[in-house]
Amino acid sequence: MAVLLMLRSQPGLRFLLAGLLLLLGRGSALSPQDDNSPFGSLWPLPQKLNIEAELYRLSPATFQIAHSPQSSASVGCSILDNAFRRYFYYIFGSSTERDQLLAAGGSGGGGNIAELSQLQVIITASDPECNQHPSVTTVETYEIDVTQPVAILKSENVWGALRGLETFSQLVYEDQYDTLLINKTQILDSPRFAHRGILLDTSRHYLPLKVILETLEAMSFNKFNVFHWHIVDDPSFPYQSASFPELSAQGAYHPVTHIYTLADVKMVIEYARERGIRVIPEFDTPGHTQSWKGIKNLLTPCYNGEKLSGTFGPINPSLNTTYEFLNQLFKEISMVFPDAYVHLGGDEVNFACWQSNPAITEFMQKQGFGSDYRKLESFYIQNLLDIVTSHMKGYMVWQEVFDNGVQIKPDTIVEVWMEKNMKAELSKVTLAGYTTILAAPWYLDYISYGQDWQKYHQVEPLHFNGTAAQKKLVIGGEACLWGEYVDATNLASRLWPRASAVGERLWSTEATTDTSDAYKRLTKHRCRMVRRGIPAEPLFVGHCDYEYRG
Ligand SMILES: *[C@@H]1O[C@H](CO)[C@@H](O)[C@H](O)[C@H]1NC(C)=O
Ligand SMILES: *[C@@H]1O[C@H](CO)[C@@H](O)[C@H](O)[C@H]1NC(C)=O
Ligand SMILES: *[C@@H]1O[C@H](CO)[C@@H](O)[C@H](O)[C@H]1NC(C)=O
User: Would residue 369 be called left, alpha or beta, if left means φ above 0 and alpha means ψ between -120 and 50 degrees?
Assistant: First the structure.
C-alpha cells in the first residue's frame, strides 16, 4: 500500500507499476484489484469474449468514434451520429471532466502505453436501418475488436452497433492515476432472448416524461429493448386521445398537467428508437378500466338487488356501441404507436358486476353462454382481437386470455405473470404453440430486505418441461414495476440495479450463473449508472469513485 501511495505522486512511475502487476499476475497479494472480475465491469456479460493483458490508453483530446469508410452508414445516419456523441460523453465525461483528465496526464506523457485513437463502426448490411424502428426480429449481433491503433465495431445494422457501443464504453476504465485504459479485447455478442422488456405503470402514479426518458436511457445501459408502457388502468387515464379527448379529460389525475399528449408519446417513441427500444403500449380491458368513465355507456352499471348501485364494473360486452368505440380507439392507437404489437391486457376480470346486471344476464341467455362468464369475457376479447387485427396489429395478452380458452391468432404473444404454477403454464402455452414471454419471477414492485437481485439473476426461463421446439417459443421476459408505491421520487432506485439482473439473464448465456462474479461486475456497473446520472441503489456496503450528486 505504501508503495502505491508513493507512486501516486510520481506519474512517471505509474507504467512501471502496471508492468509490475502484469508480471505478478492476477490474484497476487500485491494486486489492488482482488475484488475484480476477470470480466471487468461488463454488464450484461457478452456471449463470447477474450480480454488480453495488453493495454491501450484513450485521450479525450484525440479519441474519435467514427463511421468506417467500409460502412454502409455514414454521417447523416442520425441514430448513429447521436449515439457516437452520447458514448463519447459517457466515456470521457463533461468538458470539465475531460480537462481534468488531460491535466492529469491522460493524453500527455503516455509513457510506453500505446494509444487507441479511434473506434470505427462498420455496418455491413446494405440497408443500415437508420430511419427504421426496431422489431421483434431485429438482429442485435455485434463484434468488437479492440486492437491498436484502431478498434473496430462491426454489426449488420444500427441496432447491433448501439449494443456494441454500450459494451465498448464498459470496456474503458480509469486507473488510479486518472488515465483511461482499455485492454486488447475481442467480443462476439448477441442476445439469448429477443424480447427483453421493462414494464412501467403510468396509471397508479403519473410519471413525468423526464422519468420515462431517464428509464429508457438506463434500459440502454442494460441492453433492454422493449418498453412495455402500461399507460392506463383503473386509477387514471393519462393518454390524451385525439378521437376521445374526454377519456383523459375525465380520467386523468389532472386533465392538463397529468396527461401524455401526442407530442409526449412521440417523444418517448423516438427517444426509445434511438436506443434500439420498442414501445409496446398496453390498453388493458375489459377489467382495469374504472378510469375510462369519460365514455358514456361503456362500463357496465352494477346492481344492488333490483336497483342500480351507482358503481361500474368492466366494459359492457353486450352493447354494439362498445365495439364501435373500441374500433375507433384502437384505430388511433395503431397509428400512434409504430410497433407491430399492442398489449391488450385481459387480466383479472371481476365477474360480480356482470352477474348483477339483468341486461347482461339476458344477453348471456340469448348468446347461449349459460352462466359461464368466461364465455362472455371470451366473446368480448374475440371481438377486440378482430378489431385490432383489422388495424394490422399483432397483440400481446396476459395469460388469463389463454387460460380462459379465447381463440387467439397463432402469432399472439402470451405473457405469463402468475408465479404459482409458472412452469406448468409455460409448458401449456408453448405446447399449444404460442409465443410466450415470462414476467412472473420479476415483479420488482415487491421489495424485501437484502440482495433480491440474486434471486432475479438465478431464474432460468427455459427450466420447464417441454421439447426444444416449445422452448424456442419463449422469446424473452419482462421486469415489471407496478406503480402502487412508485412515482418519480423512487422509481429509478427501485428499478436499478435490480432490473439489471433480469437484463443479464435475458441477454447472456445460460451458463452465466456465477453470483459472486456477477456481484463484482454489478457493483461496478451500478456505480457506472450512478456516474451517468441514474440514482441506482447500492447492492451492499461499499462506495463509488463518483458518488451520486443528484
Ligand atoms: C487488463 O490488463 C491488465 C494489465 O495487463 C490486467 O492486469 C487485467 O487483468 C486485464 N483486465 C482484464 C479484465 O483481463
Ligand atoms: C348489434 O349488431 C348485431 C350485428 O351487426 C346486430 O345483429 C344486432 O341487431 C345489433 N344490436 C342492436 C341492439 O343494435
Ligand atoms: C418435469 O416433469 C417431471 C415428471 O412429471 C417432474 O418430476 C419434474 O419436476 C418436472 N420438471 C419441471 C422443471 O417442472
Answer: alpha
Neighbour tally for 304: CB within 10 Å = 10
DSSP 8-class letter at 392: T
Q: How far is CA 7 from the centre of its chain?
A: 43
Ligand 1 mean position to 106 CA, how many Å? 18
pTM for this model (two decimals): 0.92
Cell numbers found for residue 340: 407491430
| pLDDT tens digits for range 33-72 | 458 999 999 999 999 999 999 999 999 999 999 999 999 9
State pLDDT tens for residues 268-303: 999 999 999 999 999 999 999 999 999 999 999 999
Active site residue 166: no
Beta strand 435-438 with 474-481 is parallel
> How far, in Å, from the CA of 463 to the mean position of ligand 2?
48
List the residue whose alpha carbon is closest to atom 5 of ligand 3: 465
Which residue bears the cell 407491430?
340
CB atoms within 10 A of CB 163: 25
462 CB-contact burial (10 Å; exposed 0-12 / middle 13-18 / buried 19+):
middle
Q: C-alpha 80: how far from its chain's center?
A: 20
In the three-class reduction of DSSP (H, G, I as helix; E, B as strand; rest coil), residue 166 is classed as helix
Catalytic residue among 52, 270, 324, 348: 348
